[in-house]
Automatic annotation (TrEMBL):
Its EC number is 2.1.1.222, 2.1.1.64. The keyword S-adenosyl-L-methionine applies. Belongs to the methyltransferase superfamily. UbiG/COQ3 family. Pfam families: Methyltransf_23. The keyword S-adenosyl-L-methionine applies. The gene is ubiG. One of its GO terms (biological process) is methylation. S-adenosyl-L-methionine binds at R40, G60, D81, M125. It comes from Methylophaga lonarensis MPL. It comes from the Bacteria. O-methyltransferase that catalyzes the 2 O-methylation steps in the ubiquinone biosynthetic pathway. This is Ubiquinone biosynthesis O-methyltransferase. Pathway: Cofactor biosynthesis; ubiquinone biosynthesis. It is an enzyme of class 2 (transferase). One of its GO terms (molecular function) is 3-demethylubiquinol 3-O-methyltransferase activity.
Length: 237
């Protein structure tokens, strides 16, 4: 394994390989991703110059839920992941949907080495908490962006409420996610993520929470960042 490909945890890759068959089932184990995807798309659209004709890379794309949404919105999408099985599912689903998406098995670091300053928008959603060195991925995302480009991250906050809802609640109480999907110690505080972004030359533009409303059983964007949150950064020209 080359130095550039070492920031991969095979155990984490295997977890998502095991989910591949149910990736596009909106009522299956990937249901939370389907439910928050419209919010992610809204956030990206509102915080950038828009997706129409934008050159986008989706880092840690999994089965392609966000990748397809951005392609449908008019973006030219490249999507990368290290899980072979989710990528196979993503390619097949894109073919069935009549969408052209360039899916590649690659780390962010390897892609940055060959495609620096190439993308108007870089997305890295629900991925940072699954790699050994999140800061290296963030640096790679900064390298991939064009000057003036927008970079979007989402992850889980290392906050007791996140353990209660995202780990104990979702995995053990409600069985929404497979047990062991998340490791609480790998959750990332917003202050940590912001510091890594600034160290990579990015300006933090916005931090917004993804909040679950138990009465309506729906997710909303809001100010509470204790569990899930989105961060918008920009690579200044």
């Amino acid at each position: 394994m080359s130095q550039i490909d070492q920031n991969v945890d095979p155990v984490e890759v295997a977890k998502f390989d095991a989910l591949a068959d149910s990736w596009w089932d909106p009522h299956g184990q990937s249901r939370p991703l389907h439910e928050i995807n419209p919010l992610r798309l809204q956030y990206i659209t509102d915080c950038s110059s828009g997706l129409e004709r934008a050159k986008v890379i989706d880092v840690g794309c999994g089965g392609g839920i966000l990748s397809e949404a951005m392609a449908k919105a008019g973006a030219e999408v490249t999507a990368i992941d290290m899980g072979e099985m989710p990528l196979n599912v993503a390619r097949l689903h894109a073919l069935e949907s009549g969408l052209t998406i360039d899916y590649q098995q690659s780390t962010a670091e390897a892609m940055a080495a060959r495609s620096a300053n190439s993308f108007d928008i870089v997305t890295c959603m629900e991925m940072l908490e699954h790699v050994p060195d999140p800061a290296t991925v963030i640096q790679a995302c900064a390298i991939l962006a064009k000057p003036g480009g927008d970079i979007f991250f989402s992850t889980l906050n290392r906050h007791p409420k996140a353990w209660l809802l995202a780990v104990f609640g979702a995995e053990y109480l409600l069985n929404i996610l497979p047990k062991g999907t998340h490791d609480y110690q790998r959750f990332i505080r917003p202050s940590e993520l912001a510091a890594w972004c600034r160290a990579s030359g990015l300006q933090v533009m916005n931090i917004t929470g993804i909040n679950y409303q138990p009465l309506s059983k729906q997710f909303r964007l809001g100010q509470d960042v204790d569990v899930n949150y989105l961060m918008h950064c920009r690579l200044l020209p």
